[in-house]
Structures
1.
Amino acid sequence: MKSILFCLLLLVLVDVSQAQDRIALLRDTTRLGISPHALQQRYPSALAKTEKERSKAAFAGRAKQFLDTANAFNQRSYRFMDARRKRIPVQGIFVETLEFVNANGTYDQVFCQFSTDTLSSEQELTFLTLLAEWYAANPFPLKTKAGFWCENFIHFGSPKQKRVAVRGPGIIITVADAQQTDRPDTVKVLTLNQLDLVSIPDVVYRFPNLEELDLSKNQLTQLPARLTHDLPRLKRLSVLRNDIPDDSVFFTKNKHLTALNLQGNKLTRIPSSVRLNRKLESLWMGNNELSDLNTKPLHSLRRLNDLNLYNSSLSRLPASIKRLRHLTVLDLYYNKLTTLPKQLGKLKRLDQLALAYNDLTELPPALAKLKRLRQLYAHHNRISQLPPVFTRMRNLQKLDLGNNWITVAPPVLASLPALSDLDIAGNNLQEFPTVLFSIKPLKRVYLGSNPLFGQEAMSSPYAPQIRQLQARQTEVFY
């Protein structure tokens, strides 16, 4: 086992080392004998800057898809850097990059220019090392025939943000006020966010009627069991964006905590003690590096209806997901899923399912068993069609399939009797989707950034069909 782990670590180090060789400061290109101009002649630009260049651009006809993907990709880079904020020598630094991307999405060469010239050589090296890690682990999601080049910005952390805390009756927002109040029994909400706390102050336990405790954006490394033991009315607890690792989250058995936010910590699994919150309804675990999902701590939580696994590095969902039968909301945005287990169809109470920004090539027929599903978000994947059995989804009202690989609108759309909001923008539609005329409840449809649609849509041969939809009180966005 140790030898396998060593080999995996070696592969990661090799990838980062190779990426470092391809990353250079723009000012050093002459000394290194590298010509950005020559590379710009070899690679097509991502988007055309003039009408004359349009046909040569790598994403000609797919501009919105590229821009949406690039924006989402940049958001992911912010989260990547934020998770490594303790390694960033100077906060709030922007780096302007000139990126040359291979056809498969890997990076051939990246040239960097920092937003300040006050960095030391050591600080620059640290930034370049972080960039090398990012580019090695994150190829660009869209593939092309000949690669492309583009300009970009990456943000390293940020200066300390101004603290935001809601004020009002029954709310205390500082440790000093918590210590000084002579009516602790009247306090329902304690907001101690962004105070650089490294541990939970004892003053928290002064408030017997406390219902909400916000400890987000501090530097906590442990969540003690005393919170649920000594605060018998605590319903909502947030430790968003702290530094809590595995085996440092503790709860006592209780029936009062209903909402728990563990987002943005250093967790690689769902803490086993979560199961002791017997009436937990909402669990947010996003922005942790879960990689693999063990749902066992959740199996006994019969009131859990909202599970957030946003940006958790998940490459698969276990079959045990079927045990979470009470879920009504499941958020799987920004993961690495390539397939979905058929057991998802067992979540019969599901009302909202978010699958956007993954690597799915299809949606499983088993989703048709989700008879109560009203909202399905599957944009920014690689889906080309829908299973015919989706005709069973009688309550589906909103379906977002934007930025996928659809060339012909799925015929099954005509058989969705509740569908009122449809997004198929950013695909590769080759003909007008006449199936839209068969969707009687349709109120809004998004068609932009397809080869057939753009700002000129109303002067195109498809203008009569668009007007026909509008005459039926359907808003058409192109």
Note: Residues 269 and 290 are 5 Å apart (CA to CA).
2.
Amino acid sequence: MKKSLALVSLCFMLACTCRAASSRGDLQARIDAAKVVLDQVMSAEDHSVPMNILERATCVGVVPGMIKGAFVFGAQYGQGIVTCRTGHGWSAPVFIRMAGGSWGLQIGGQSTDLVLIAVNDRGFQDLLKNKFKIGADASAAAGPVGRHGEASTDWKMNAELLTYSRSKGLFAGIDLDGTSVSQNSDDTEIYYRTAYTFESVLKGNVAVPVGAVPFVKAVAHYFVEAKKH
């Protein structure tokens, strides 16, 4: 009984953390944190995203500090941002939610940074029209690591998304099958003060807000650098 109550409490607390109303200050902090994660990952030399993957990227998502908790059942929730490549650069970011669960003999909790890279034309523009599940609605693979190394060719044939995690300084590909990804329209509207559609923002029809410029410039910088190699 106590275990059941602990599980209910855990899931409730994580759900509240994910769905609580955000202020513009909270959202700006999330964008700033996403840039820090991206910069730290890409400065890891031989433990970063391979260049041949970056140059194919159509969209990049970063979820800083995804919360994981477990007491026999596991639950994980996170909120992040996504930007997509357009005909004239990279789009303004939109806000997303991620949620998933797991089963097993586990106890504890941790915070993990996630990086999601779309590597074909479908990208997040189409996927985010509706809530989708990684591995079911969108083929995904744990992304290979190694800045100048040869990445596995499997993802070129099958994956729409490459998924990575960073926890306690370790950056590696991760299997996120079963994790759902959905629009956070409320946060997007709060940040832009207008109810823009995700498709409109990610296709570059909305100007990049001043506060999001550093993040978008960072993505563009790493994309350009990858093209040079």
Note: The chain is about 35% helix and 35% strand.
3.
Amino acid sequence: MKDFINLFVEQTPKTPQVDLNQYNGELILFGKSIPENAAKVYEPVLNWVSQYILNARPTTNFRINLEYFNTSSSIWLVKILKVLMQIKEPDYVVILHVYIPLEDFEDMEESGDIKDAFAPISDIVYDSLVSIGIKVYGTEDDGKIIKEKLIFI
């Protein structure tokens, strides 16, 4: 465990920036995620998270700020979230931060679908000891956050 270090990978036109920090519990994916080989991008992330949960921070912020991601990326994101749910401390919290375009946020808000849109996550986290929250942000094209909503599972 002494060799466990933060993980930072620069983004490319097809892969996200990865910034995983063991000291402050900030796990950030930013950019686009349309890799030809998602395993090459996300397997190191999954391995890092598997080590992180052994000595997790009391609050872990998993920030998914991807303007676009493909199906294979979404499969890996679910795998990573499932590993985070294996934190064994019942007083700890994992907050999933999801950034979406403001128009989508407002459409979901008006129809009352924000909570419903994230209901499938409850299937992933149903047996975890750690508390789960989802914070959804409505962003402008420049990334500026205009609205936000917190959902607890």
Note: The mean pLDDT is 91.
4.
Amino acid sequence: MPDEAPPLGPHIQQIRKRRKLTLEQLASLSGVSRSMLSQIERGQTNPTFATLWNLTRALNIDISELVGGQTSNRAQTIDVVGGHFVPEIRSEDGLCTLRILSPAQSAGRTEWYEIRLAPGGALVSDPHAKGAVEHVTVIEGELEVVSGEIRACVPAQGVARYAADLPHALRNVSDTETRAFLVVAS
């Protein structure tokens, strides 16, 4: 007789309640429908691997914790990456440089960048995933932030938060280089 599958539903429910999340909130975070989550938690259906993946990402847990019911033992390390190994993306006109500061495994969830824009430089983006939001902190200079049809100027030391699931852009509107940190949350 094959081994019985672990009781995933009650464990998901336990983690969700421990984090004080409603079914609606977890559905929004994971992209799994509220009705499917309810069926999983009640043990009426077994989730697919893709559903498990989305739930573990939304709950910020390892899949081994969900399946095995225990936290994974991660070695205590400090991962240091030399500046010359930090990936950079440059615009075709050379006026915009993005340094990718986030680790590769966070791609698609939370990403952070250092941005340098020469005067007149712009970072123009197509819409990201539904519900994506960007947070930009201007360190030096000044940025114009565009999100859909809305525009706002952000001075040095200012922060802007805006929808990134529609066309959006950052433009240097100052006479000097603008430096900023950008966080993309999907």
Note: The mean pLDDT is 85.
